[in-house]
Design goal:
alpha+beta; 434 Repressor (Amino-terminal Domain); Jelly Rolls; 2 domains; 26% strand; disordered N terminus; DNA-binding; Cro/C1-type_HTH; Lambda_DNA-bd_dom_sf
Length: 208
């Protein structure tokens, strides 16, 4: 194995297995809103075992990887890949997008494979009103498509101002808000859940 030049970016083959796993598990755990203790309990692992995994040391067994992947709602192979969040998406009405089918002027807003329940809501906010939302259950993504008016929405510190036709998907397990413009706002809101986290939400005391 070649020794990377100091200051250069390591190729995937040169990145230590433990480091990739550590970053992936930690990122997925934090994305799901779980503490180390909660994840260890749900996976049937000791706190020490999980601590070693997230530190990038030791040599976790296959059973440990299987237990973690089951709770985190992914395959074992996913734990060894980049843990950036591909679900977060902002698509403006004016942005180019693939056509969505044979219907005239249709376009694809987002494509993903839900592995849990999806709930759809039609929502309307009066002009100038603001609604602060508590975090949803861990692993819940919120999808907003604005039909009328203007809407400023998203997680605290990362809100976006939406115009009619804009689509925004964000992590719903952090505090977020909705604020209508001077003409009010009518929008579609969908909540997509991870099956494994949906099944354990009551155990952890989280509500959608």
């Amino acid at each position: 194995m070649a020794t990377p030049v100091q200051g250069s970016r390591q190729s995937p083959e040169e990145v230590p297995f433990g480091s990739v796993l550590a970053v992936s598990v930690r990122a997925r755990r934090e994305r799901a809103g779980l503490s180390q203790g909660e994840l260890a309990k749900l996976a049937g692992l000791s706190a020490g075992t999980l601590s070693v995994v997230e530190a990038g040391t030791g040599n976790p067994t296959v059973s440990t990887l299987l237990a973690l992947s089951k709770v985190l709602g992914c395959d074992v192979t996913d734990l060894l890949r980049d843990a950036t969040d591909p679900m977060i998406r902002l698509l403006r009405h004016s942005d180019p997008a693939p056509p969505g089918g044979s219907i005239s002027k249709s376009r694809l807003l987002h494509q993903f494979a839900p592995n849990g329940p999806v709930e759809f809501y039609e929502a309307e906010l009066p002009a100038g009103s603001r609604n602060a939302s508590s975090p949803h259950a861990p692993g819940v993504y919120e999808h907003i498509w604005l039909a009328r008016g203007t809407l400023t929405t998203g997680p605290e510190g990362a809100v976006e101002r939406l115009e009619p036709g804009d689509y925004f998907c964000f992590q719903g397990w952090v505090p977020h808000s909705y604020e209508a413009g001077p003409d009010g706002a009518t929008f579609l809101s969908a909540l997509s859940y991870t099956r494994s986290l949906w099944a354990t939400r009551e155990l952890l005391g989280h509500k959608p």
